[in-house]
Amino acid sequence: MSNMIKGIAASAGIAIAKSFRLEHPDLTVEKQTISDKDAEIKRFEVAVNQSKDELEVIKKRANEELGEDKAAIFSAHLLVLSDPELLNPIKDKISSEGVNAEFALQEVANMFITMFEGMENEYMAERAADIRDVTKRVLAHLLGVTISNPSMISEEVIIIAEDLTPSDTAQLNRNFVKGFTTDIGGRTSHSAIMARSMEIPAVVGTKAVTSTIQNGVMVIVDGLDGDVIIDPSEEVLAQYRQKKDQYEAQKSEWAKLKNEKTVTSDGVHVELAANIGTPEDVKGVLENGGEAIGLYRTEFLYMGRDQLPSEEEQFEAYKTVLEKMEGKPVVVRTLDIGGDKELPYLNLPKELNPFLGFRAIRLCLEEQDIFRTQLRALLRASTFGNLKIMFPMIATLDEFRQAKAILLEEKDKLVANGTAVSDSIEIGIMVEIPSTAVLADQFAKEVDFFSIGTNDLIQYTMAADRMNERVSYLYQPYSPSILRLVSMVIEAAHKEGKWAGMCGEMAGDTIAIPILLGLGLDEFSMSATSILPARTQLKKLSKAEIASNKEKILSMSTTAEVVEFIKSNYMN
Ligand code: PEP
Ligand code: MG
User: Where do you find CATH 3.50.30.10 in the chain?
Assistant: First the structure.
């Protein structure tokens, strides 16, 4: 097949729809001198009116699909576009200085944004954010470029992008976005992880989709084998429709285990949990028979917006998740921003090595207002279900102690104010930095649980960027070096009577599952769609039998040896 591009299978399933190129156009403005000032003012007014028409359409759609709450933001944008206090100074600038509309708009808007942001008042900060958004929209019209806004999509499409930021991904409307494919990224980049929790088929790291696929072309995304097929013939379409049906049939087979516990052939129960990014993902967890939520990546609440979420907004999100899980465990991870997850509105300086930089708990311990707000929201929500809190990127015991002390301080303050807070919240850490894995015996004395974050643990142990396709050969979950670290962490936890889970992608990997079972992992947390296949697999495995080979596996010398052993002994 000539019109096929190979990539990395990032999210299972087959999607067939027209392509939609998601582009972030260049909105750079240059100052120009204008001779016909009246015509320039007219040009500005036309752009404003076009933006208003566009916003009316988006508002209507948002109202229908997302509800009035979410649509309110567009009403605010429309108000900004009718505000003479903003529009008149722009027109005045064009006529008094003879500058182009783009330049006048940007100058005046920036002046208001700086003024509002400096007021340290939440309402004003929101106004600054509105002006920033509206300015982009009007600028795009003036410059004659299109802003392809993922939340504006209103027909079934497959997104074609160089890369999808986590915030782009968070805005995708799953009713319309049937699949996506990108030039860059790997299986553990966050857009791939989110695609799995949103159950959107995806192929990433293709290197070529944006240079090959135009807008509006029929595309097939095969997230099972990592293929993207462009403009398929009727015959190929029929073939993939059949493959899609087969996959659906396989899913129905798995679904039969939805309400069963995960018990191995020798009668051992392990917990199969899900990783989520938003409260909406809980639906998929329940539909896929998740016994718990092993990782709630709260940072997505902070993304795709222009300012920090308020305590109230966070409280509502955490409460919703806890309530929907009806008493099943919910492990919420505190903010893990940094690495590939940026928050532009925090205005953090660019770093040379963002994955090794000022991120996650490091940022939270310094920006304590942000951290404390989140902790308060969590503590207040704790009475609505079975909440466990964990801190990301812990590298030293001191960091854990500081984070825990802050959590307890906030708890005491709430209790002193008469707010109900659960007394049985477990406090754990992600083990995703090698120093912590090596020192797990010491950590185990102080934490309530470990959750091994192999996405990062592997990249830090192998010194191989998880986002970089060129070093992906080093990204080896089954390397004996990784397995020894994982085993040390599990043993350390058990020695202190604590539990050890894993929430990195490795936990749902078919080759890793038998090994992890044999090493004694208690909880496997994965993309919701991996739960039922994992349950099917685990039911056929004997924990005791694999455990009897533990030393043998851990003393192997290469990844290939491990894979060969597992494939020939524990996979059909
Ligand atoms: C991990 O590092 O394994 C993990 C689960 O966290 P994240 O993928 O969000 O970095
Ligand atoms: Mg991590």
Answer: 3-23+149-235
Contact at 8 Å (CB) between 129 and 116?
no
Q: For 132-154, how does the pLDDT look when each residue is reduced to its tens digit (9 = 90+)?
A: 888 988 999 999 887 777 766 77
Half-sphere exposure of 544 (CA within 13 A, CB side): 4
Classify domain 3-23+149-235 by CATH number: 3.50.30.10
Spatial contact of 302 and 348, defined as CB atoms under 8 Å apart: no
Residue 229 CA to ligand 1 center (angstroms) comes to 31
Report d(CA 232, CA 355) in Å as an integer: 39
Whether the predicted pLDDT of 67 surpasses 80: no
d(CA 171, CA 70): 12
Q: What's the burial of 253, exposed, middle or buried (CB within 10 Å: 0-12/13-18/19+)?
A: exposed
**pLDDT for position 470:** 82
Single out the residue of 522, 526, 521 nearest to residue 510, CA to CA.
526
Q: Which CATH class is domain 37-143?
A: mainly alpha
Question: Which one of the ligands is nearest to 300 CA?
Answer: 1
In this structure, the residue with its CA closest to atom 7 of ligand 1 is 455
What is d(CA 430, CA 503) in angstroms, rounded to the nearest whole number?
A: 9
Q: Is the CB of 498 under 6 A from ligand 1?
A: no
Pocket lining: 373 vs ligand 1, CB cutoff 6 Å: no
Average pLDDT, the chain: 92
Is the pLDDT score of 269 beyond 80? yes
pTM tops 0.90, yes or no:
no
Q: Is the pLDDT of residue 479 over 80?
A: yes
Q: Would the CB of 336 count as within 6 Å of ligand 1?
A: yes
Q: Where in the chain is the domain with CATH 1.10.274.10?
A: 37-143
pLDDT band at 1 (very low <50, low <70, confident <90, very high): very low
* Separation in Å, CA 143 to CA 31, 42, 80, 111, 147: 13, 15, 20, 21, 11
Start-end ranges of CATH 3.20.20.60 in the chain?
261-543
For domain 261-543, give the CATH number: 3.20.20.60
- Tokens at 505, concatenated: 């992608």
Catalytic residue set: 190, 503
As a whole number of angstroms, the distance between CA 524 and CA 504 comes to 9
